[in-house]
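RECORD TYPE: inverse folding
INPUT: structure tokens
STRUCTURE:
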């Protein structure tokens, strides 16, 4: 349980007395995704449960949950977290994710959470992995271990921002691998990848591919936001 804190809302400055520095009114105004493709998490009309792309070419990821559209103020919170070291925003985003998960009451919880790994150089530059910081909150509340040493990002990739869908897939291909391929994999049947923002799903799918080739049976993705390709995600 996260203790109640007395502070002001990060978005409107109203004083708040709850677990996170986000007032109820601002939380209610966040751009929630009401309905999405169950496989890739892209927002959809109510009538569909799976998108055309996933029907045509089923992704390696078995299911996805993205909470919000990558729009104001979610994009602001994520950008500030990553580029101005506002680690307190990770507590807010992690709280929102765990709150939604508790509401959904999933029956089939994963054996472990896997935050999308950053390349070593980027990790050194940023000082932390935002997905790991978000995962920590969820892991604690749902009592699921974090598996942070299984996979590494061995290839420093170009920023996905500048690339189209096809280029993103090529750019990310082969960039993840098992850290200790000769060691026995821990017995993990079901893993959920934690990401801050999913755009095309190229990164999470590449990770799922590596996990499945190592024997993991089911891979899900829980992310804070889902962007579409024309959004500028940095
Ligand atoms: Zn507020
Ligand atoms: Zn889909």
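DESIGNED SEQUENCE:
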């Amino acid at each position: 349980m996260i203790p109640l804190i007395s502070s002001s809302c990060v978005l409107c400055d109203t004083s708040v007395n709850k677990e996170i520095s986000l007032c109820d009114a601002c939380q209610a105004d966040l751009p929630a995704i009401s309905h999405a493709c169950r496989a890739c998490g892209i927002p959809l009309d109510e009538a569909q449960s799976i998108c055309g792309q996933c029907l045509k070419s089923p992704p390696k990821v078995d299911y996805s949950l993205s909470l919000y559209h990558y729009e104001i103020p979610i994009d602001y919170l994520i950008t500030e977290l990553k580029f101005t070291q506002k680690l307190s925003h990770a507590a807010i985003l992690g709280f929102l994710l765990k709150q939604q998960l508790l509401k959904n009451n999933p029956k089939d919880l994963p054996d472990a959470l896997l935050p999308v790994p950053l390349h070593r150089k980027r990790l050194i530059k940023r000082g932390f992995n935002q997905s790991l910081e978000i995962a920590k909150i969820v892991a604690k509340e749902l009592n699921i271990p974090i598996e942070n040493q299984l996979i590494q990002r061995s290839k420093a990739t170009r920023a996905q921002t500048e690339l189209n869908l096809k280029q993103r897939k090529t750019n990310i291909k082969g960039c993840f691998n098992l850290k200790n391929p000769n060691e026995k994999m821990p017995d993990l049947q079901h893993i959920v990848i934690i990401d801050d923002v999913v755009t095309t799903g190229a990164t999470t799918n590449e990770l799922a591919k590596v996990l499945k080739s190592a024997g993991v049976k089911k891979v899900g993705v829980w992310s804070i936001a889902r962007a579409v390709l024309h959004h500028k995600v940095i």
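NOTES: The two ends are 32 Å apart (CA to CA).
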